[in-house]
Structures are given as structure tokens and as C-alpha cells.
Amino acid sequence: MMRPADKVGVALLSDEEIPTCFQVLSKSFGHDAPFVDMYFPDHDTSSGQAQGSKRLTVWKQTAKNSTFLKAVTQAGQGDQEHIIGVAIWTYMKEPPPAELDKVENVEEVWPDEDDLEFMTRLWRDYVIPRTQAIKDSYGKGIYVLELLAVHPGYQRLGAGTALVKWGTKAADERGLKAVVEGTPVARRLYEQCGLRAEIEEMRFDVGEEFIGRRKPKLIYMTREPKF
């Protein structure tokens, strides 16, 4: 745990640090976020973490408009740095593909046909609000917080706030709207950083055959740029 003298900072994430950050992601969400559970299958197992880390590494290496950040704590000179949080901010000028198989190796990640179909339908609805925001930007684009996770042992210490404000500052500098599909648990944090709910509960039409599965509870939140 942190000591009173510890400070939280934000820095760019290296490829080598992605496995550590994926463990933070898994511990942060546990099994309380259905979208995370489906998007990163078995994320709390060694095989799931290996696969998730591999996917994040490919994302980081191929998406030039995505910035991977870490929140770190370091008590003083010579003390070991601890990664306690992770965030991914993306400058998005083109609408994301509505078809999951255009952004993921779907057969490898979701070998079960029902899981794949369920995730495909979730994804199709998930990208609708940000797609509309991009269309409404008249070519400027938006700044999207695609992932935010803070280790449960280091929450309420400012890591989440620092990671969010890094992106809202970058959005302001570009004159762009910032958006996030946030969980209800994180709502207060986002509101403290200036984001406001535009859609109180995002809609996921997954069909009658998946009525027994947990659907995500996500709030679509936005923040206008401050000049």
C-alpha cells in the first residue's frame, strides 16, 4: 500500500509493461463489468491474461492514434516504481467498424460460436454513440477514453483522475469532444473530470436467445472542449 509520501504520476506505457497493466485491468474490474468479461475472455486466468496482453500489444503497436498510459507511484529517489493504473486514449476521426471481425481475430478470441455471436452483437451497439459523435464533429474527430483501470489496492489516491485529466487536457488542446462509455462505479470520477451523461444507460439489443446473459450497464458520457 502507498505511504503518505507516495506520489502518483502519469507516463507513457512500454510494450514490456503491458502484462503488468493487464493484471491491473483484471483486478480492477473483477467480474463486475460484463463488457470487460466478454471482450477479454478469462481475463483472470494465466491463459486469458497472456491472450489479453498479446491483443493490447498488437493494438499499441498498430494504432498510431492511441496513447497507452500508466499511472505510477514512486515514494522517493531509489524506490521502485509501481504501476497502479492504465488508460488508453484514442484520437478517433473515422467511425469504428461496426463489425467485430474487422477489429479482432474473432475465431481465436471467441472460439465458442455463441460467445462470438453475443460479443458481435454487443460490439455493434457499443460503437453506435461514438460513431454518431464522430459524424457530429464535422471532420474534427473526438477523443475517446477506451479503457481506464486502477488497481483496487490503490484506488481513491488520484490515479484515475490523473489518467482521465491527461486525456481531457489533450482533447482541449485539439479542440475536441472527449467521450467515454463508463461503468456506473466510475461515474463520479468522470463527472469530477467534467464529463456528463449523455445516455444514462446504453442500449444493447442482443436478441431473445441471449436473454439469460448479463448485458453491460454503461453510461455514455461526454465533455465539450474548454478553450
From TrEMBL:
GO MF annotation list: acyltransferase activity, transferring groups other than amino-acyl groups
Signal sequence extent: none
InterPro entries associated with the record: Acyl_CoA_acyltransferase, GNAT_dom, Trichothecene_AcTrans
N-acetyltransferase domain mapped to chain residues: 70-226
Gene3D superfamilies given in the database record: 3.40.630.30
Protein name listed in UniProt: N-acetyltransferase domain-containing protein
Organism for this UniProt entry: Zopfia rhizophila CBS 207.26
